[in-house]
Amino acid sequence: MRLLCGLLLLCLVVWAAEARKGGRARRVRSRDHTTKRFAADCKETLVNGEKYFDCQERHLTAVLLGWPEDIHHLLLARNRIQVLRDNTFSHFRNLKSLDLQQNEISRIDDGAFDGLSKLTTLLLQHNRLQVASEGMLIPMPQLKYLRLHDNPWRCDCQLDSLVRFIQVPSNRNIGNYARCAEPREFSGRQLKKLDAEMLCSPEQEKEAILDPENQQLPAPQKKSDATSLCHTYMHPVPRMDCRNRDLKTVPADIPLDIVKLDLSRNTIKQLRQKEFVNVKELKLLNLSGNSLESIDTAAFTGLLYLGELDLSNNSLRYFQYGVLEDLYFLKRLSLGDNPWICDYNIHYLIYWLKHHPDVSHTGLVCSEPEEFRGWPVENYVKTYNAECPKDKQLGNLPDTDLAGNTPLELTAEIDEEEGPRPYRGHKKFEIIRLN
Ligand SMILES: *[C@@H]1O[C@H](CO)[C@@H](O)[C@H](O)[C@H]1NC(C)=O
Ligand SMILES: *[C@@H]1O[C@H](CO)[C@@H](O)[C@H](O)[C@H]1NC(C)=O
């Protein structure tokens, strides 16, 4: 009896708390207690004429009745769905994308996606799938993106049809980065690259095990593989979240279509050349909160569309000559919380910023030497240019870069009327003019 009273009291307290929140949730609740409450917690939004239904992280174990049927994008990431039964989504006829990542899905019936004739994107990564067949994909003739990585795939005869489908050359974005977990001899191999003939032929499997050359192949999953370490999201833009993953280097295999990449709060010390050369769509790169000390001059090669670069909270002291030359469309550059040293090496950065007035930057403050500590770096450079006697300039020339070019930073003050010049011209020692 006492227990019952306790429960009743608890219910009342919860009810009162919910009631205080008021609004739509309460009205829906009064009709039906448990199920509709979830429905009301989901959010419908309209973006560019397309309807998104956001039910992420709602502890859902199933798709609920009563959701709007005319939606284009259904976001169900980070729930607890385990099984997808036939016709689960068949009333969402306009659906273009379906995000089911980070659930606990271990079974998908062949008719689960029936009716999704317009679906182009299906996200099933970070689940518990061991088997699936090509049959489940047949109702979706428009499917272009299918993510299957970070599932414990069992690469045997049952997976044969799916593997062959993934390997069709035109299916470029289907099943990339998915890897076998079992059997042991295939563990770590990519479904995309597996020899499909082996799956259903025990004879050849045995040979593969005995063949010493093949034995080295099933490399354990590379530790720095981005898709297994980070979370990928497709909407509203392809985005990869690698925050706080203890990364010491930029991970390999970043999917080529990623637009926003968050690598903040790791322990990356240096950027090597061409780290991002394949991620050509990248618009935002966040490297804040790492231990960056050096950036190769070719580290940002290929990032033609990068608009925002966050390098704040690192250990940067200066930029090597040329580091920023590839970033044609940069708009924002965050540089705060770095121990910038105000000596001649910092001039390149100021020179570049001067010639890219569209770029807004923050946090460029001297930390050394002591006499300039706390100064905006621009002020230091101005002072330098104003005070520097001729002999100091000539006698104290900074390091030239590998091409043997003399830094042109000082000419920046002079050039202004003439308009920008190529940075790598051979204008040796033209820097003598003083104001
Ligand atoms: C980069 O990441 C840090 C820490 O996670 C965050 O505070 C900052 O706002 C991010 N910068 C951008 C430009 O998104
Ligand atoms: C700087 O980065 C460290 C390590 O990632 C983090 O713990 C700290 O909170 C960051 N500081 C700021 C001001 O963001």
Task: Give an account of the 3D structure.
By secondary structure, the protein is of the alpha/beta class. It has three domains: about 25-215, Alpha-Beta Horseshoe (Leucine-rich repeat, LRR (right-handed beta-alpha superhelix)); about 225-340, Ribonuclease Inhibitor (Leucine-rich repeat, LRR (right-handed beta-alpha superhelix), Alpha-Beta Horseshoe), CATH 3.80.10; about 340-345 and about 365-435, no CATH class. It has eleven helices and 21 strands. The protein is elongated and about 80 Å long. Mean pLDDT is about 75; it is low at about 1-40, about 205-225 and about 390-435. The structure holds 2-acetamido-2-deoxy-beta-D-glucopyranose (2 copies). One 2-acetamido-2-deoxy-beta-D-glucopyranose binds near residues 265, 289 and 313.
